[in-house]
Write a structure and sequence with these properties.
279 residues, alpha/beta, TIM Barrel, 10 helices, 8 strands, 43% helix
Amino acid sequence: MTRRSFLPAIAALPVLAAQQQAKAVRKGRIKQAVTRGCFRGTNFTLDEMARHASRLGATGFDLIGEPEWPILKKHGLVPTMAPGAGSIRDALNRKENHAKLEEAMHSNLDKAAANGVPNVITFSGNRAGMAEPEAIDNCVLFLQKVKAHAEDKGVTICMEYLNSKVNHADYQFDHMSFGVEICKRVSSPRVKILYDMYHVQIMEGDIIRMMRDNYQYIAHFHTAGNPGRHEFDDTQEMNYHGIAKAIADLGFTGWVAHEYSPLKDALTSLDQALAVFDI
């Protein structure tokens, strides 16, 4: 490189750096969030994840606990889904869990409300031989106890639909009618479903029709490609552009959170995923 070519190249570096760090402008018709999984394969700290997510146009970050909320807020991100009560395997479908889970749920509802967190997550738990009618009764019993607190605090309790075929063997809430029946019986605007479309696709498919038919019971969405739970590309079977349009056309005002694990460059994949839902 000659001196003549070297100096302009050096002068261009600040411009290139600024372009790389420029904040993406999204339409915002669908509010989008990310999860840690979107950055798998990198060595980013949560602070770096949050910075990149904000730069690329996300407005929320899912599945982060209270101690790390200030990191998200530093970058203008909402903690969009926080811990509520229970684990995937051991949760609301067993009465013997209720006292412990009720204490956790009340505490987490208070924390969420005090920090502008709109949703907390919960689960059905595994079947372990339990019949569905009993499981629904027990989930309803628990949610009836805590719904008034959620309503008073303006925080939505979201029970997640997960697949039992590939990832979570024996999980009870693995078909939409289970969650819908619970929501109908609890009858609260603050008790709804986390509609994880990767899991729904594996168990039932019919993503858009089922979403439209049960829209009033859905508070939050998760995304990932199937098969593989990776980014949205031509190796997977789901048309997320069409799904995004259907969500937007319903007037959905919550968040769609991306929960895939990239096989390609994490930031390129995230930019592309955010663009798919930029309706």
